[in-house]
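Lecture 7, part B: from sequences to assemblies.

Below are the input chains for today's worked example.
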Amino acid sequence: MTIDEPGRGSRSDLERYAGLFAARTRVMKSSAMRDLMAITERPEVISLAGGLPDTSTFPAESLAALLSHTAAQASAKALQYAPTEGMAAVKDCIEQVMAAEGVIVDPQDILVTTGGQQVIDLVCKTLIDPGDVIVAEAPTYPGAVPAFTAYQADVRQVAMDSEGMRIDELEATLDALEAEGKRPKFIYTIPNFQNPAGVTMALPRRKRLVEVANERQLLVLEDNPYGLLRYEGEPLPTLLELDRGRFVIYLGTFSKILSPGIRLGWAVAPAPVLEKMNMGKQGADLCSASLSQLFVTTYFAERRWGDYLAELRDLYARRRDVMLDALAEHFPREAEWTHPEGGLFIWATLPDYIDTTDLLARALEDRNVAFVPGRAAYVDGRGASSMRLNFSGVSDDDIREGVKRIGQVIREQVELYGTLTGKAPPPAAAEPEPRREPLADVVELPKRPRRRRSG
Amino acid sequence: MKVVVLKGGRSLERNISLKSGARVEDALERLGHEVHGIDVGHDLVARLRDIAPEAAFVALHGRDGEDGTVQELLEIVGIPYTGSRVGACMRCADKILSKHAFRAAGVPTPDFFGFSEAAFKELGAAEALGAIEQRLGFPIVVKPADQGSALGIKFARSAADVPAALVAAFSYSDRVLLERHVHGRDLAVSVLDGQALPVVEAVPREEDFYDFEARYEIGRTEFVCPAEIGDELSAQAQEIALAANATLGATGFSRVDLMLDSETRELSVLEVNAIPGLTETSLLPQAADADGIGFDDLVARILSTAT
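Predicted structure of the full complex, as structure tokens:
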């Protein structure tokens, strides 16, 4: 080994570092799909793959004024560390948001975090030993999967239908786990306008879920980034409210109601859990950015956050409708999709012979359009024929054009399959049908009685 | 020397190419060259004329970069470049063409059939699927004809799997290869300037035998170099690799992927990669290393073959 050239070019780089990696890196997911997603960033690509709120709607002059006000009023504080649990003033803002969600919270029960994502990480850090079980929805938030696997959790996924997670299946899963001698640590759910499926958990299921958590003494991680982005229907109570803070850890965020760039979220949790999470946060980043916390405080002091939220709701509701119309017009009849009452996403499911990862390659190559392949939302290889489509961060025209292009690629594949199997696809429906009924079929993916043989 | 490193581009292997390119740039700088990295795009020709390099190191993978397209442009602009010439790149990039050439030259390769999408759409090739399946036997590997990475490669375990596997493969290419699956060990022989390097074996750590995507990923696949297959088989693998390389006319450097059948102990060639990966996890640098050639030396030697 040479000393003058450390780390370069000598005895196999791979083996040198591989020996140092923790066991958990082996299960961290990285794949060809990620390479595929890398080329969705080309400027000519219409991407329905993002999960982005439209930050261009926030007036630049407001941002400038808020930041300069913050700098003028609290320069030293903005440049200083903050308490780990968060500044008292920002907790006031969080109380306002929680009140809008229908829950009164005590500031002592709040931990301010670096985005909602940190809550997921801290909950895992606090609760999960390697091999411990997390029960999640199927499909689940793709961004949660790397956090779960990094802690070497054993993730079990429970199917959803149009009313959200199926609690009967959840209970059956819990029973089966008990029979295996395994006790899950927590149940992860996004009850409102779920990412990626776009469905909302019905009230009876919310009540039953909270009962199950109490009966079995399990925690529930309620991830609620989109609760205030409801475009139709009546708001439902949060699990936190139904449970009165006994077994629910609540995850909130400013990302979708203000800005994801400021990286501020929060957890509301039972005191002993929150205390451990606080210690976990000390190890992770000591505190969330002071500048961001003061920015939020200044912004809320203007009392216009509700107006901006209403603007966002109007904008996203329109874009959702544009996407639903475009889907009805351009997707073939073999496809199905959800009708979200809020949030950012629609989940579409194609015939099971289409793998959406491969479809994405063709869509990118031939038509410069992108989406998230469904497999990203499962830990067990399911979801191969589904896709997540984002409507919030894309202009009306791009939504129409993007959906049209994806529809064309799907049609090509449906036709090709028909040719290969000798079964010409039935002619496309002349009239687009409204898609409100078959949600259960859409979200609950077939448990693969693998492929049927044609003749 | 003023050298451009061509990397990135718009192929599906863009990410890997960016990594290969960055690593090559570092090495070239350490070797004392004036290095200009180019992420290949619409302005490629203009930038090449602008920089007027003495040589181009092509660190592109996949479509456009590895199939002769960029090489043709370099010929036109008159810049010496690394790796195989245009014709050899085209032959290597096309798995069907490669395999026909192997067969004609007596280089062992698993039985196969190649089809275009048009053959199915316009010539009723679906009617022939039954016969193909019978001739090859299951499982069959279905591959896009000209896609370099693992994307789109599917296993069909039975006739019922074939149509969906074809739809997947046609997502990447207008031609596909149906190949008899060889159950055995994955080997690779890198060739540097006409010399075969030690054999590398890729061993999946887990039971993800059918998960191609995991195969060349750090931590999930173990690389053994030199492969523990005995001197005789190693020599044979190197000999076959050189023959495959010569058959397609690959020059400069390349990597030949082979299978060692676990039952018959026979070796066969799957493909030749005209521009193999040069990342930390790539096989060519490992093989060179096992032969006492460090990464900088490797890059220097590849550059010296630029013509």
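Note for the exam: The radius of gyration of chain B is 19 Å. Keep this in mind when comparing with the next example.
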